[in-house]
Structures
1.
Amino acid sequence: MHKILVVDDDTDIRLLLERYLSKKGFEMQTASTGSEAVQVGKNNPFDVILLDLKLPDGDGIDVMKKLKIFLPKSQVIFITGYSDVRTAVKTLKEGAYEYVVKPLHPEEILHTIKDAINVAKEKEAVEEEAIKNRRKRNISPKVQQKFVVGTSPQSENIQKHITLIAPTDLSVIISGETGTGKEFVARSIHEKSQRAEGPFMAVDCGALPKDLAGSELFGHVKGAFTGALQDKKGCFELANGGTLFLDEIGNLTYENQIKLLRVLQERKVRRIGGDKEIIVDVRIIVATNENLLKLVQEGGFREDIYHRLNEFNIHIPPIRARKDDIEVFSTHFLEMANAQLQKQVSGFSENTMDKLKQYIWHGNLRELRNVIKRAVLMTEGEQIEEKNLPPEILIPQENQNGNDDHFEWMFDEITDLKSVAEKAERNAILHTLRKTGFNKSKTAEILKIDRKTLYNKMKAYQIELS
């Protein structure tokens, strides 16, 4: 029986999920605060953790990081309000499996939980098989993953840079927004390098708990601190002979920045609590979604480390800046979703692809992947149609390109004052619907009209959400 932990300060939500999921055969346990959840997690294994993003004693992301110390294999699904969706997208980057938006739909949650459990099982099976194969062949572990390369001029330029820099041992800074594929570029550099048969270690510096970051990076000796029950190798030792990829490098504490500088200069590490220096041969690739140079100027990142790392720089533009890649990546994610969901969707209708290309992908490839996966799930025919896409993609967003003139849209094809008012009213309704996660009751409340008036206006302005 799979075990699930529900962490939410809302008693009704805890009871709803506990009763519903118990009937579906899950063993349930609940907690109302982050501290209670951590205490429960120390003593009990869980397959899935349903975690509220806003808790009375702290931020849900911080609670997840603490739980992951004891439950590294647990799949975390965040519960969030409509106004927290942008923040919720960040949780995926921090290591969460998925997020669900309030109001909760039990069937959706059940499907997400089952999906999370299946993904965890598949990952564990693949890892076990890989370990067996490596033992049989006695070779170093190497990531075998199918990736796709874009066809836009920007993507072609990135590939040229990868080909140019890979054979060298230069350190590389990869910059770009969250979800643009920075780890893919790092893996590509490694696999095209002379270190390809060595290990590739990826570490998310933003997800490392501050009190354990030093141990994860540099290792520790038995007894170095409370809980250090045995010697532990750090990532630098584990990546010896290969490549160490440090994602979100700007999140490292000042203390660990100093230790990192020493490793970069001397190519030696010293475990926490130890007095022995260990020589390491590691290529360093780092990534950031921040402006590291600006962070240096503001005193948040050491300038000497920046210059040590910045031997070569690769910038990955957001997907909205390389529209030519959208069809390529969409097709790739369609194949992935077909395999995961055991479906046989063949492609996209022409109108659907037009919508995908018009949309501004703030979440980049990660958002595109999730949208395609949900669309495949919703598709009953051979192709993904417009109706299978979520409302935010179907409904055009005003001012998507960041134009500061908020009223420019009003003066396109305007014939009289009445049409200006109607267009303004229509856009106000659309804007509020998006802000409320397309909750009609909340939209009517904010606009200070009743639901019937809202429905009439939506019908008059041909606003359809299905």
Note: Residues 134-145, 398-414 have pLDDT under 50 and may be disordered.
2.
Amino acid sequence: LSLKLKEEMKDKIGMAYSYNNIGVIYSRQGDFHKALEYHSLSLKLREEMKNKKGMAESYHNIGSVLCRMDSLKEGMKYMELGLELVRELGYKAGVSSNLSAIGGWQLSFSSKAAEDKKVQLIEAAFENGLEALELAKQIGYVDNLRRASRLLSKVYKKQGKFEDALAMKELEIKMRDSIVNEENTKATIRQQMKYEYEKEQILAEQARKDQLRIINEQLSRRDNLQYSAIFIGILILFGGVLMLGFVRIRPKDAEGIAFLSFMILFEFLLVLVDPHIEQYTGGAPAYILIFNAGLAGLMFPLHQFFEGKLKKRVIKTQRKKLRQRMAQYKKDTEKM
């Protein structure tokens, strides 16, 4: 998928890198023909881009695959091309690792060669190993020191120089242990960093939750205070409406005030139950509409009853006052 995207975008650098990696995988799986195919594709792109470091890598990989296919002559030709490019670039680490690899293949093929050829290959491997070791010492690359010392240990053993072979073996082990220790240190540091990061994340999440809890508590207190104030206001409003029955007011005005009072009560109840409606209905408009209609249906008969009682009281009060006025008028007339 990654390669396909790079091909679609015509990303030559990415394509060359992917081809190279696929070639390495095929080589490890033992499918050398497929490995050569992909390493060749990588090399072609790198040659087009004049990427000498990449070309050196591809030459080296092609040479290694050819050597695995028992083609030392062809393999050495490509590996030497890669070595020449890293020398030209002044890349000492690359020169050292390439020399160790070339020397390793030379030593490996020496056991299959005729006696005269065998000596030449061992000597060539020895020279490459010495140069690789010297360059590794110059740049202080532990892994390159390990590779070069391992090669020289094998060469000395082939030559019968067992003390020298032992000395190189000890150096190889020392470098190997150094790499292992370095990797362990890096792993420990990575683990510690991961722990610190996770700890910070947990603390940040806890702080966020605490802050959210405080905000919710503040909002809850605010809402409770407002609900209480509104409720008290509604009680006062309805108390005032009930008092209308004892004051002079037209029935039509009493009807309007009662309607307005129940509208305020209805809106308050909607605000009060809205969070619960949202929770149980999932915010579905149809369900919310049904609930609101149901609440309005319950409020309607209550409103009618309250309004009827209020109008009766207003009319009764008006009639009582009218009778009082008539009685007073009658008394005043009689006195006259």
Note: The first helix runs from residue 2 to 8.
